[in-house]
Amino acid sequence: MSAARTLRTATSDQGPNPCRPQAVAGKVREKATTPRAARRVPKPLASGTPARWAAGVPAEVLTAIADRSVALLCVFMQERSSVGELADQLRREFDRYSPGGKLPSSRALVERFRVSPVTVSRALAQLAAEGLVVTRPGAGAFRARPARPTAAPVGDTSWQEVALSADGAADLVPRSVDATGVIVSLAAPPPGVIEFSGGYLHASLQPERAMAAALARAGRRPGAWGRPPMEGLPELRDWFARTIGGSVTAAEVLVSAGGQTSLTTALRALAPPGAPVLVESPTYPGMLAIARAAGLRPVPVPVDPDGVRPELLADAFRATGARVFVCQPLFQNPTGAVLAPDRRAQVLRIAREAGAFVVEDDFVRRLAHEDAGQLPRPLIADDPDGVVVHVGSLTKATSPSFRVSALAARGPALERLRAIQVVDTFFVPRPLQEAALELVGSPAWPRHLRSIAAELRVRRDAMTSALRLRLPELALPHIPSGGYHLWLRLPDGSGSASRAFGSGGESAFTAAALRAGVALTPGRPYFSAEPPAAHVRLSFAAVAGTEEIAEGVRRLRTACDEVFPGKRST
What we know:
Strand content: 5-15%
Helix content: 40-55%
Largest sheet: 8 strands, mixed
């Protein structure tokens, strides 16, 4: 077997001893005849070697095997590095060859770059996979010709407007889907733009190493790639039940594929098309989109810093006959409000008297800040009558792609939820469920929660301080002790700005912010009806750190001066 060669540039010979680097074959050993004392078996090898195999094997043999393994690993790594270096060098020289032109032969490349034929072959294969090189057996390698653009046939899709709307004439609620409010939080901003619009943790806050280790361990579990129970793994359902608390049991929990999927299942199970559904105002745009896509009619119920207002909730139930109320009792999106203790029992009583369900979206419980104190229990923990359908998720505290959540309910509602989930998705992939079990059961999980609790508090304080210093005209009525965002009211405009405000000043401010290099979320999508004022939501979790927060607020000063001239406080 030929030894690997490193990529070197030839130098001149000087004197009787040649200084030209030469490739040294792997079989050649300096001072091969020098006797060497026997060494003890290295500890890593001894601990990692099966006892049945190592027993009775001389230490010299084990040491030689270890040395040879390390040598082979070094050769492999060196070979892989050489392949990449050679491929990079050939890319830089592509302009020397016309499309279809022949590249130097493999032998010429071996002699020029002092590499092995295997390295040349692998580098050319890599370039061929990228579409840059075409290899022809017996003829050599050639620079690929650029693909000729083919004119796409021009079609006429106007017929779809009729097809998509013709059967909706009898619908009480148009089932058009407006995903604008969701896309704003999911879309990555252009390079150089600070992301105050993100709905997930920045990569530096995600437990990537812990998730990777959990996924690796999960993949080795017996049966990890088999079909899981349709309701979810019993151990994971039990963990969710214990974290919910109260009298909730594993039998009352379904494992679902993320909070958005859980909300979709809940609304489809509990409300028929055309029915009204009560929602907080403002509320999560993704839930409004789910409701409208299902043909439901969202009816707003205002919230204040203590959560939904019970007297208005009772009025809404009486006026509409709704059978579902969707709320976020803990760190509400977007206001950050927490449902006050005296209102919790009122909400459950009002819904029970109306014969209605409360869908509890407990999406951000694991993102409480360091100074949050004791959190209130989920509503379902104090509901023995099956009024509450609970949604809890791991996604916000981990990663956008770690889509594991739970649906908890009691009575016939649970059976309907299970049936709809099975029809829609069958089940959550078992490797992901196994990985979730590995993650939440590892020592890294509580450490991660403590870490993000401290970091989110620091970021929240940095953003509130920067806003008060640079943008005091933006009202901040509530500073949350959990979650990842702030809800700000924009100032009233004057003159031309006032007219812009009346026709969408949030859009003007959002566009000005983007020109200044900041992506934020306008408030309009959070309202199911006409908003009482203009708002924006700023996220402090999706940025790299406090320095980026300070710079983003500084840029917003420019946008505010542009849209609301004369409003700058002195």
